[in-house]
């Protein structure tokens, strides 16, 4: 059973300026709640007991204060904070939690997207990973003309009754013509322990520069070895809070729903 969740929270939130000049992106209020709180609400149903916040050094005091302030609201969670000194990619961010993850499966969730659905998405990921003993990534369909902004997957059918696909490949931000599908990675993952080991190996050869080490690099290594990676297609409503336009629309939608 997966018990630990890594939340990569670094970055300067440039697309949300001027809102992020004083407040980290994931602490901005969306319909009266900090953005990160929507993800934390998913954790209890998934059986998560530890949340590892991977943050930028300039935001350390703000996230420390936030974790302390919500401990009573989330009594099932133990919070840890790890600092990512340099923005060398989301895979590099996950590596900052390696000392706490050990050799156990774990979850990764990017809170930029609020996932509006009846059942906890994290709970669904944990269930699929446990049942099929595999890494499971969350997918959703978007208009094909928008695929160049995302990681796009090549898939084959695995278990249609459970909305599961078998992932055959991942392409980062392809052109519309080169995209293998219109299924994109949403930003929620249930990871087998080997993914962390692959990231540790890759980190030794990757250049130290922005976005050099990505989770999709580790997925590529998994697929080369013939490991099984599954994609769970998300059927609810995805609210993208990563841009000013999306942030405003998401706030209005969630306020209207009273969430």
Radius of gyration: 17 Å
What structural class should be given to the helix and strand makeup?
Answer: alpha/beta
- Percent of sequence in beta strands: 25-35%
Number of helices in the DSSP assignment:
9
Name the strands of the widest sheet in spatial order: 5-4-1-6-11-8-12-10-9
Strand count: 13
Quick one: CATH class? Alpha Beta
The total tally of domains equals 1
CATH topology: Spore Coat Polysaccharide Biosynthesis Protein SpsA, Chain A
Q: Which term fits the overall shape?
A: globular
Q: Unreliable segments (pLDDT under 50, ≥5 consecutive)? A: none
Listing every helix as H and every strand as E from the N terminus to the C terminus, the arrangement reads: EEEHHEHEHHEEHEEEEHHEEH
CATH superfamily: Spore Coat Polysaccharide Biosynthesis Protein SpsA, Chain A
Task: Describe the protein in words.
There is one protein chain. With 259 residues, the chain is α/β, with parallel strands linked by helices. It has one domain: Spore Coat Polysaccharide Biosynthesis Protein SpsA, Chain A (Alpha-Beta Complex), CATH 3.90.550.10. It is 30% helix and 28% strand. The chain is built from nine helices and 13 strands. The longest helix is centred in the last third of the chain and has 14 residues, at 244-257. It starts with a strand and ends with a helix.
Layout of secondary structure:
Blueprint: E1 4-8, E2 29-30, E3 33-34, H1 35-40, H2 43-46, E4 50-55, H3 60-69, E5 78-83, H4 90-95, H5 98-101, E6 106-109, E7 113-116, H6 121-132, E8 135-141, E9 151-159, E10 164-172, E11 183-191, H7 193-203, H8 215-224, E12 229-233, E13 237-240, H9 244-257
Parallel strand pairs: 1-4, 1-6, 4-5, 8-12
Antiparallel strand pairs: 2-3, 6-11, 7-13, 8-11, 9-10, 10-12
